[in-house]
Design a protein that fits this description.
It is globular and about 60 Å long. It has 12 helices and 2 strands, in the order ααααααααββαααα. By secondary structure, the protein is an all-alpha fold. This is ABC transporter permease.
Length: 255
């Protein structure tokens, strides 16, 4: 009995502390659920938000704002995927297909079940696609002369931001463009990943001036342990299905 307990203590001690990639993804998915729920489940069970019922309106706004904590988390997961993937093209295609799959349920959740296609806002996964393309292009110009590299890098980031703004990627509460903020975090991670403290401080500052909530997401990243944390080889693939499943479930609840 004592041997088993000693073995348990050794395994517990050997287990890395902090947040693994698996745990970060779970946290991100829970936060994304809050965003979808704020526009579907909350109005369904508590009533439509309006200035006549500040309680419901407050709940909706809080749920949406809290979901912004996920932005720097997903930006970091995207950067890690970019840094570790063997084929950025395949990685990008998976994200692009995911974005297409998410678009209809996202529009139904955001604008109502009658809006199967609505171009007032595109789902945040498109922001991940834009950020990935920008990072790939930044990597492509890395070996150019300093002046040319800096000029092209600034131009590429500006173009990426324009795409996010023009497509209204993840436009939230008319005050936050999730796509642009995602790209901002990715650029910080791309250039400062070798300087942990500088990276965290810069990212936290960006989050703080972007509605405060994203800054808390950076705090989660501070406790990451660098481990994947997957128990099964198929676990990463399951996460691709979680966000569209959340959107679809919430869209159905809104019918």
């Amino acid at each position: 009995m004592m041997d088993e307990y000693a073995k348990y203590l050794e395994e517990k001690k050997a287990k890395p502390k902090g947040l693994s990639t698996f745990k970060l993804k779970v946290i991100g998915d829970v936060l994304m659920f809050l965003s979808a729920a704020s526009m579907t489940l909350v109005p369904r069970f508590l009533g439509a938000p309006s200035t006549d019922d500040m309680g419901v309106l407050t709940v909706v706004v809080l749920c949406e704002a809290i979901s912004w904590v996920a932005i720097p988390i997903y930006a970091w997961l995207l950067y890690m995927g970019f840094d570790r993937t063997r084929s950025w093209f395949k990685y990008g295609m998976r994200l692009f297909i995911l974005a297409l799959v998410c678009e209809v349920p996202y529009d139904m959740v955001t604008f109502g079940p009658d809006h199967l296609f609505d171009f007032r806002s595109q789902n945040p996964v498109f922001g991940l696609v834009v950020a990935l393309v920008v990072m790939v292009l930044l990597d492509a110009v890395e070996d150019l002369k300093t002046g040319v590299r800096v000029t092209l890098s600034v131009l590429l980031v500006i173009i990426g931001l324009l795409w996010d703004v023009l497509l209204r990627v993840g436009q939230s509460q008319a005050i936050l463009n999730i796509g642009s903020l995602t790209l901002g975090f990715c650029v910080i991670y791309y250039y400062l990943h070798r300087r942990e403290n500088t990276m965290m401080i810069t990212a936290a500052t960006l989050g703080a001036v972007s509605g405060i909530a994203p800054g808390f997401g950076v705090a989660f990243l501070h406790y990451r342990n660098g481990e994947l944390g997957y128990r099964h080889f198929w676990t990463p693939w399951v996460f691709y299905a979680v966000y569209p499943a959340i959107l679809l479930a919430c869209a159905c609840m809104a019918l």
